[in-house]
Amino acid sequence: SQTIHQWPATLVQPVGSPLSLECTVEGTSNPNLYWYRQAAGRGLQLLFYSIGIDQISSEVPQNLSASRPQDRQFILSSKKLLLSDSGFYLCAWSAGTQANYGYTFGSGTRLTVV
Amino acid sequence: DAKTTQPPSMDCAEGRAANLPCNHSTISGNEYVYWYRQIHSQGPQYIIHGLKNNETNEMASLIITEDRKSSTLILPHATLRDTAVYYCIVRVTQGGSEKLVFGKGTKLTVNP
Q1: Which one in A10, A20, A25, B80 has a CA-CA gap of 20 to 30 Å to B23?
Q2: Are strands A3-7 and A32-38 parallel, antiparallel or unpaired?
Q3: What confidence tens digit (pLDDT) does each residue in A15-45 have?
Q4: Which of the residues B31, B34, B38, B48 would you substitute to probe the A interface, choosing the one with the greatest number of A C-beta atoms within 10 Å?
Q5: Residues 6+ apart with CB under 8 A from B58
Q6: If chain B, 112 residues long, is cut into consecutive pieces of 10 residues, what is the mean pLDDT of each piece?
């Protein structure tokens, strides 16, 4: 069966520090991968999605970047965190356009920038 | 932007059916309607999805109108653990990719 792993679960980082959040998927190949962010009291905002290795699409301009160095690995990064980067970050995967499956979400990382 | 609109909040008595409405008047013919829910501080959980026909699984039923411009998620016997934010989403396909664009959802509170 497929599983999605996301870590760390919580993170407190100072303003101006770098960020690296990692997400890996097991039990499937060539998944579509997504990064979402949820600010406090808000809905989920799609940040990035990827349909293949080194194929990243950005949904909104921001202080963050994403990379997909391996088929089942998706990384969210920042060189210098801002206070506004605080939020709940969720990784998700789907089987792609050929299947009418939904997304499976990871357990999330709660990032607090201080 | 999300292609769906939902009421911001609803209440339901424990043991009764919860009917959550969703409008998606601009949905295209090949776009699916998905429902997810999010319990506080957790990742969204898949509930059900459909294209044209009504669907039922162990969690819920999905009723889609004939013109596909709206749908209703039905939780037949709501429990306290069903308290969550429920998202109705149209799965958007463009080019070789697809994505779920979440709206603000409906906060369902199940009362004892």
Answers
A1: B80
A2: unpaired
A3: 999 999 999 999 988 899 999 999 887 788 9
A4: B38
A5: none
A6: 88 97 89 91 90 93 95 97 95 73 91 96
